[in-house]
């Protein structure tokens, strides 16, 4: 189970630009970041900045190395390739979304 000590909703409007294999850039908004003691990593969940409020969001997840301020927008993003790690990230996301629905 992941420790959710540092779950930080994207209230500070952090944005990250992702570049695909063809060199196309797309701006993403940080949904939230969290740390996992089990995996010894920090994670960031993103959604496209261009998404409208009435459409289903395509959420991207990456591990990252935070900067001195714990920021995800200044460092490198790494793909999550382990199935167990993906399951943990999905569990944290589902908990976050359930908590948001309660508010």
UniProtKB/TrEMBL annotation:
Domain of life of the native organism: Bacteria
Cite the InterPro entries for this sequence: UPF0473
Give the UniProt family note.
Belongs to the UPF0473 family.
Name of the protein this chain belongs to: UPF0473 protein FD01_GL000344
Organism of origin: Lacticaseibacillus manihotivorans DSM 13343 = JCM 12514
């Amino acid at each position: 189970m992941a420790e959710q000590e540092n779950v930080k909703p994207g209230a500070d409007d952090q944005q990250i630009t992702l570049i695909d294999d063809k060199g196309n850039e797309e701006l993403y908004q940080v949904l939230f970041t969290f740390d996992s003691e089990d995996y010894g990593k920090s994670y960031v969940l993103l959604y496209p900045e261009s998404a409208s409020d009435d459409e289903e969001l395509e959420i991207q997840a990456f591990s990252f190395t935070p900067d001195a301020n714990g920021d995800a927008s200044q460092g490198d993003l790494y793909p999550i390739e382990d199935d167990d790690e993906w399951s943990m990230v999905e569990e944290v996301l589902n908990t976050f979304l359930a908590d948001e629905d309660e508010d």
